[in-house]
Amino acid sequence: MILRLNSASRVISSGGKKIALLDNINLAVKEGEFISLMGPSGSGKSTLLNCIGMLDSFTAGNYTFLDEEVHTLKEKQRSKLYKEYIGFVFQAYHLIDELNVYENIETPLLYKNVKSSERKALVADMLDRFNIVGKKDLFPAQLSGGQQQLVGIARALISKPKLILADEPTGNLNSKQSTEIMELFSELNKDGVTIIQATHSEKNSSYGSRIINLLDGRIVSE
Ligand SMILES: Nc1ncnc2c1ncn2[C@@H]1O[C@H](COP(=O)(O)OP(=O)(O)OP(=O)(O)O)[C@@H](O)[C@H]1O
Ligand SMILES: [Mg+2]
Fold first, then answer.
1. 114-156 pLDDT, tens per residue?
2. What number does CATH give the domain 3-96+143-221?
3. Is the CB of 43 under 6 A from ligand 1?
């Protein structure tokens, strides 16, 4: 099991009222699964991915990731854990504006203390794989939405994460690029990488092995 959620909730206060963004989620994910989270806009898909990715926290329940009880960890230990094992493809690109394409893709390797010569080789490999060698010196503002998305995906994959969390990974891509990305995810998954994606697309969900439907912060069906 790569991760397990037991009665995990995320409740926030807003204008004096308590709102459950996630409500008693029970979910066990085996290593090597490819899961699609589906459900209407506002049902909690991004919130769930953010909590699993440790960028947000569950406010109740238990979260176990690779045998670590995430809810008991200090912030520093948690960030070490997700930087080591989780690659995040965001709905918005979250690239660093001040860094060029090359540097953006390189960032996760700096966190992992990969040595310089190896970093160069890995980034070159990614630029090549995503057909963006010619863009390496440009800054995010100089790229189209689809190109920014590709850079974000390259950055998520470069540190060879065990778990990829992808929030509408093809939202800004044309259909050819979308198919390429989904096929890349399939290949990574065949190599053992666990993937959880949030998607509105039936086509994208068909690449996965398991579909989980959310409604109002609850899992309503599988
Ligand atoms: N910080 C916050 N304060 C108040 N409400 C929030 C906050 N963050 C998220 N929400 C609410 O939580 C609900 C779930 O949002 P979330 O972004 O997870 O939905 P989603 O399923 O990803 O939707 P979409 O398909 O549009 O991306 C929404 O109703 C949203 O307004
Ligand atoms: Mg969302």
1. 999 999 999 999 999 888 999 999 999 999 888 898 899 999 9
2. 3.40.50.300
3. yes
Question: Is 171 close to ligand 1, i.e. is its CB under 6 Å away?
Answer: no
The residue whose CA is least distant from atom 29 of ligand 1 is: 42
Kindly identify the ligand whose nearest atom is closest to the C-alpha of 41. 1
Cβ-based neighbour number of residue 203 at 10 Å: 12
Q: Specify the 3-state DSSP secondary structure of 12.
A: strand
Please give the structure tokens belonging to residue 2. Answer: 């790569």
- 20 C-beta neighbours (distance < 10 Å), count: 16
Listing DSSP states for 14-34 in one string gives ETTEEEEEEEEEEEEE-TT-E
The pTM score is: 0.92
Question: In the chain, where are the structural domains located?
Answer: 3-96+143-221
51 Cβ inside 6 Å of ligand 1: no
Q: Which two tokens stand for residue 52?
A: 């699993």
> Looking at ligand 1, which residue's alpha carbon is closest to its atom 26?
41
Which tokens is 117 given? Answer: 């010569």
CB 46 near ligand 1, within 6 Å:
yes
Could you identify the atom of ligand 1 that is nearest to the CA of residue 214? 21
Q: 34 or 92: whose pLDDT is higher?
A: 34
